[in-house]
Amino acid sequence: MATQTSTIPAGGLAGARDSAEKNYLNESKGILSWLTTLDHKRIGVMYLICILGAFFLGGMSAVLLRTEHLSGTPNLMEADAYNKLFTLHGAVMIFLFIIPGIPAALGNFVLPIMLGAKDVAFPRLNLCSWYLWVIGAVCALLSLLLGGFDTGWTFYTPYSTSSPFQGVIPIVTGAFILGFSSIFTGLNFIVTIHKLRAPGMGWFKMPLFLWGLYSTALIQVLATPVLGITLLLLIVERALGVGIFDPALGGDPVLFQHFFWFYSHPAVYIMIVPAMGVISELISVFSRKHIFSYQFIAYSSIAIAAFGFIVWGHHMFTSGQSELMNTIFSLLTFSVAIPSAIKVFNWTATMYKGSIVFKTPQLYALSFLFLFGIGGLTGLFLATLSTDIHLHDTYFVVAHFHYVMFGGTVIAFLGALHYWWPKMFGKMYNENWGRVACLLIFIGFNMTFFTQFAMGSQGMPRRYFNYTEGYTTYHVVSTIGSYIMAVGFFVIAGYLYYSLIRGRKAPDNPWGGASLEWQTSSPPPVENFKKDPIVGDPYDFSNLKYDPAIGGYVRVDAQGVAS
Amino acid sequence: MEFILSFVTQSLVQSDGDFWLPPRRSTYAVEIDWMFSFILYLSAFFFALIVGLMVWFCIRYRAREGGGPQPSPSHNLKLELVWTIIPLLLVIAIFYEGFRGFMRLSVPPQNAYNINVTGQKWKWLFSYPNGYVDEALHVPVDRPVRLTMTSEDVIHSLYIPAFRLKKDVVPGRYHTVWFNATAAGEYDLFCAEFCGKDHSNMITKAVVHPPGEFEKWLEDASNFLAKMPPHEAGEKLYKVRGCAQCHSIDGKANTGPTFKGLMGHEVALKGGTTIVVDENYIRESILEPNAKVVAGFQPVMPTFKGRIKDEEITAIIEYLKTLTE
């Protein structure tokens, strides 16, 4: 490892005061030291850069789609281009951004530190996951070069096996490879949580974020292989003409939907459960209050993961599956509502008699409660058989999905990014710009997607290039909302970039968190901790005191003296 | 409680479409909308409760100079049970009502009037009991109608928002749905399952005829050869008899040669000869498609011998003439 003496690294990633202090960012230099790193923190940062790139691609395609919808007739593009673009938006956002988003980028960075461990259990496997992600992303780009794909991210047969565009096999291959990336990350997290907890950290002394990641990892390991096999079968049918799903070849198209949703419904919990874990951290820390009912929140994560496996048929109420199956799946689907409701009630109760600080991460957490509330409650309309028949495959579903996935997961991701940003890069960002961006995104998001509820329940089908008159006003409002959101994201990009080069040096514990990552320096050293962390209740903030001199919290003993 | 429910139901029957829902034009739409509204009000209540508490706590317990969190328990089993069991009972009730509504819209009455539906990229064909095929769905008012649906290619989904009706149309199987339209008029009929390039143009109308007029319409429409100019009748036949699947009218070759500019022009045949396309060649090609196949195409067209009337062939020929400038 390259030794560093007194030189300040280019870009000033470490503050002047700690120029001699080594951390994971300046311990070694050069692009190769990153590409061959086994450090979970560096892998987390590499994931972060990559998924933000994917988010940019997916987000820009969404803005183009919304612009196309300013009127019901062709504006920017032709039907085929539109169909490819919404497919690209979905596939990139799902497979490249939101599934790895919180676990692989932020989880990778935080999980071992929260456990008081030096790294994940299998550091090489961890790096392998990242490379698989990159290969999957290359497949997606390759597919664009080969003519793109217009199947929707759901790849429904027999359309996907007969679509005229040649990008289908590359993207399906990409999704298959990304599946392995996801499985490896899950496997790594499960083993790490089982085996590498610091002495004294029992299961119920873990921060709830880790319960979220653990539940997610279980789903990743158990569900993703089914997607892999399904996608392979799809490739076999399309490339070799073996009849599996296409009735013209003797197959069954609805079988594909069962296989696909057997993974992809649990997959939406891969996306949302880590976000719920984030919210448990944020609400508690910024309310300066012990999380309400730790055990119920922890078990509800496991419950959601378990119930998530037996509800896939609710995507298929109009597919022609039997009435009996529809009924069973409808009943089971409602079971997921309960643990989600328990979490929301407990988060709200956590704020009771707290001392609530409105820092940027907390604003995202509050936004989450608002938006996930709408997202969750509108799920009731879709779980109910009689109303789902009308709403299925309309913009109502699009809006519901985005309220959960964007209003839930992306908002929590942004909260988590702002929460751990000082820890990851040792820099503070501008708090006021942070609040402004959060507000822009909150307003823009509701404009974009709340209108889509009404549009959908009025009968506007999804994935429509042209639309009939009567839906124009909704579409225009929705599009303007998407522009406001886009501005919010550019503001975030601006001040986060500025914080990297000019930001104030972050203290070890800027928010007063009690989990272990706040006991080490910002950014942490390669080995995570210089001295063994003190394991305690992750939600007991009584011995943390704000010190204006360093702009952060320090641990004090019972007499109020810094320890 | 009964009073409130009957009030809501009454107001739903009287009002016709609102911010959330389009006009309701089938018998079971009222019930579905009632369910929708019930969930809407219940959701609004819980949303107001959560967000109200959140806002109140944010104001009441905001961080103040010199202040701090006040002690309160961080667990309360009774509270947890309350907010587990109450939502549980509510969702079971919602499930049950949704199930009952669904069963009503799943089981067609015995006396329903059957129409066969075929979905194909990118149009709908509705086949009536007398064999007549139309591109729009025509039904009588106040009479149960059953649709027996299948697809020729990929999965489509028949969706009529005004009837609150949707069902996938899947190749290789038949799906049935039913409805009873309550008012005459024209309503949008969409394809709701993505099916490729012109998915968003796979739109037609569900036309509900006033009492007594459906039979008259069907008779007139079935008799279109006598009522329409021949070239218009020919265009209709081109669309509903399956010609359009293989023969384009925009000049692009498909499974078969394009119809654009075909009449009166010379084409090369398999085997090296040529022929000028005239009425007799078209007639022969419909009745014995594989006798003179155009060079570069496979002899795959099925014969229409015995399945098509002379007047229909004449009409198609007239239509083809309009495609040659």
- Rounded radius of gyration of chain B (Å): 29 Å
Strand numbers in spatial order across the main sheet of chain A: 1-2
Q: What is the domain total for the residues of chain A?
A: 2
| Total count of helical runs of at least 4 residues of chain A | 15
Distance between the termini of chain A: 34 Å
Q: Could you name the CATH homologous superfamily of the largest domain in chain B?
A: Cupredoxins -  blue copper proteins
The neighbouring-strand order within the major sheet of chain B is 3-2-1-5-8
Structure write-up:
The complex is a heterodimer of chains A (563) and B (325). Chain A has 563 residues and is mainly α. Chain A folds into two domains: 1-36, no CATH class; 37-555, Cytochrome C Oxidase, Chain A (Up-down Bundle), CATH 1.20.210.10. In chain A, 63% of the residues lie in helices and 1% in strands. Chain A has 15 helices and two strands. Chain A has helices at residues 31-35, 40-68, 79-115, 123-145, 159-162, 168-195, 208-240, 253-287, 294-307, 323-351, 360-383, 385-391, 395-425, 431-457, 472-502, and strands at residues 544-547, 552-555. Chain A has a two-stranded antiparallel sheet. In chain A, α3 runs antiparallel to α7. Chain A starts with 30 loop residues before the first helix and ends in an 8-residue tail after the last strand. The model of chain A is unreliable at 1-19 (pLDDT under 50). Chain B has a five-stranded mixed beta sheet with strand order 3-2-1-5-8, with no helix packed on it. In chain B, strands 4-10-9-6-7 form a five-stranded mixed beta sheet. A two-stranded antiparallel sheet of chain B has the order 11-12. Chain B has helices at residues 2-14, 29-60, 77-106, 213-222, 224-227, 230-240, 243-246, 279-287, 310-322, and strands at 113-120, 123-127, 133-134, 137-140, 144-151, 156-160, 165-169, 175-180, 185-191, 204-209, 266-268, 274-276. Chain B has three domains: 2-60 and 76-106, no CATH class; 113-222, Immunoglobulin-like (Sandwich); 225-322, Orthogonal Bundle (Cytochrome Bc1 Complex, Chain D, domain 2). By secondary structure, chain B is of the alpha+beta class. Chain B contains nine helices and twelve strands. Chains A and B meet through α3, α8, α9, α10 and α11 of A and α2, α3, β7 and β9 of B.
